[in-house]
């Protein structure tokens, strides 16, 4: 069986839970927390509603060498103000399961991202993970950490 990798990041956000939840549960804000070089763009029609179970979001992103990739995720679970989970339905990963948890703590919110992912192509996917995929994901979340700290800091 192919390797399932784990990436987990926790960040303290000095803001009220509702404000943090409102920002992260709005798909229109995804581009704001993605590095500009990735040219992230939501391509599915979005309305003013917050995320909901069954919602499908499509977008294009250029994670490597400027080559655009189509990606589709589905919001599979939502507990308002606590967590939501998205899973890739089409895109570059064989498995992408991303949990977003929010917990009110003194002075703000503790936000934890937990991502289980698997790459296609067997040993080639594992090699790609070692050579650049893991580093790219870590850089993406470091960027998000900085942007969120600036926005809510």
TrEMBL record:
<comment type="similarity">
    <text>Belongs to the ribosome association toxin RatA family.</text>
</comment>
<feature type="domain" description="Coenzyme Q-binding protein COQ10 START">
    <location>
        <begin position="13"/>
        <end position="140"/>
    </location>
</feature>
<dbReference type="InterPro" id="IPR005031">
    <property type="entry name" value="COQ10_START"/>
</dbReference>
<dbReference type="InterPro" id="IPR023393">
    <property type="entry name" value="START-like_dom_sf"/>
</dbReference>
<dbReference type="Pfam" id="PF03364">
    <property type="entry name" value="Polyketide_cyc"/>
</dbReference>
<protein>
    <submittedName>
        <fullName>SRPBCC family protein</fullName>
    </submittedName>
</protein>
